Amino acid sequence: MAAGSPEYKVVDRSILLPFYRRFLVDPVLPLLPARLNPNTITHVGHLINLGGTVLLLALWPKRGWPFISAMVLLQIYMWCDNADGAHARRTNQCSALGEFLDHGLDALNTVYIAYLTAMALGLPPMGWVTIALVIPGAGAVTYWEQTQTGVFRLGLLNQVESITVLSFALTMSAIFGNDVFERVSLFGISAQRGFFLWCVATILFGMVRGMQRVAARDGVATVLPVAAFIAFGAAIAGAAAAGAISTIAAVTLATCANVHYGTRMLTLRLHHQLPKVEPALLAFTALLCSFIGWKIAGFAMNPAGGPLLATAACIVFGAQAIQNTRASLQQIAR
């Protein structure tokens, strides 16, 4: 780690990660050239994951080879994401830039994983919105806890476990069609709903546990910044459920908010600053609540309202994410 950079402490309780590293990562590392920059591995993994996601979104298949291709690319991404840090430690190339790049791109990778999950399970519109909120949101909340406490904490079920289940779902969709999870049921609960509820429940439990840990350690007031972030997510879901905004607008808002909040937390950590309530989140939450109230009151919604709100959020949060990234790189360079 570069001099003057924040302490990097990890508590990772993953069940499968030790076995994954032992059998699939560590044996391959000696084959990598020592001069290979670990950040190159990080970039390659991100681009491969993006490629698989774009493939499914572009083709929008119901079954077949695109799902298998996305699954293989997802597995390659996971290997890269676990190999970059291991290669950096093995070749003494650890750096604050490498950590920031790894976590910053994972703010995007979790978005891709959310989209892949929704495609694999053939989720309905509200399922798309929920998954787009909670999967990347879990990563953003983890970054918030790390910024507040200095500890990057991961639970029993995280990346390796989640991607293993997602790879199974992508494979089943390739063979039987992505409506298979809706057709297969147990005790009256479809496999689609079962997977969906399991995913959402475990993620929300982890987010609440993180907030509880911080509140117990630093006081309830320290949870307010992430509570504002979660309130914005709830407003997005509420507006989509009420029909005040479209599914596309809701997924766009969720993506913008999650990427913005994740990069914001990384920037604050690099500058040794604690999280604060983000005014932009409060403003957009208020706008969404007004949309919900307008719809519930029975007034006609302007079709352009949702797209305009999503566009404004992309501009505001995108500009802030770029500014945060620039500030982070400047801090690392110093």
SSE order and pairing:
Elements: E1 9-12, H1 17-25, H2 38-59, H3 65-90, H4 96-121, H5 125-149, E2 151-154, H6 159-176, H7 180-183, E3 185-186, E4 189-190, H8 191-218, H9 224-242, H10 247-270, H11 279-296, H12 305-333
Parallel strand pairs: 1-2
Antiparallel strand pairs: 3-4
Helix pairs in contact: 2-3, 2-4, 3-4, 3-6, 4-5, 4-6, 4-10, 4-12, 5-8, 5-9, 5-10, 9-10, 9-11, 10-12
Which terms summarize this structure?
two-stranded antiparallel sheet, 12 helices, disordered N terminus, two-stranded parallel sheet, 334 residues, Four Helix Bundle (Hemerythrin (Met), subunit A), 4% strand, 74% helix, mainly alpha
Note down, in words, how this protein is organized:
It is a single chain. By secondary structure, the protein is mainly α. It has a single domain, classed as Up-down Bundle (Four Helix Bundle (Hemerythrin (Met), subunit A)). The chain is built from twelve helices and four strands. The strands form two sheets. Strands 1-2 form a two-stranded parallel ribbon. A two-stranded antiparallel sheet has the order 3-4. It is globular and about 65 Å long. The two termini are 14 Å apart.
CATH topology (fold) name: Four Helix Bundle (Hemerythrin (Met), subunit A)
Percent in helix: over 70%
Largest sheet: 2 strands, parallel
CATH class division: Mainly Alpha
- Oligomeric category: single chain
Number of E-type strands = 4
- Provide a count of the helices: 12
Order of helices and strands: EHHHHHEHHEEHHHHH
The secondary structure category is mainly alpha
Strand content: under 5%
Residue runs with pLDDT of under 50 for 5 or more positions: 1-5
Q: Could you name the CATH homologous superfamily?
A: CDP-alcohol phosphotransferase transmembrane (TM) domain
Strand line-up in the sheet with most strands = 1-2
Number of domains: 1
Shape: globular
